[in-house]
Amino acid sequence: SLLMSAKNRDYDPMSDDGYDSKIPLHNDEAFQHGIQYDAKFIGSVEVPKPTSRIEIVTAMRRIRYEFKAKAVKKRKVNLLISVDGIKKDLYADENKSFLMQHPIYRVFYVSHDSQDLKIFSFIARDNVNNSFRCNVFKANKK
Length: 142
Prior knowledge:
Layout: H1 2-8, H2 28-33, E1 35-47, H3 53-69, E2 75-82, E3 85-92, E4 95-103, E5 107-113, E6 116-125, E7 132-139
Antiparallel strand pairs: 1-2, 1-7, 2-3, 3-4, 5-6, 6-7
């Protein structure tokens, strides 16, 4: 909508927006141990270093539609988010297998899709070649 675009026009995702008035769902101690989320992993691709939120959302949507067009099945995953980073485990049948881990200092950006609040992504630097990868997920609930 016009009101929404006018509100977001001056938004700079790369700057520190200071105080966030929203009350966090989890306290700091919970993040020490890690908070688990069940989601579906849509896909992951290498992206150039983003310089704006628009580029990040564009990459997220591109990945989503490319994987949908290729009929790639979303895989159930369990995300553990903590002060140490993001760990993704894959559910294969009833067995859980480790898929990937990103130390917090390698996580570049986290975002959601304003058109579908269940869709979210994070961009992290690869520890082998230092490239940026955008990982896209669909949450089980908003």
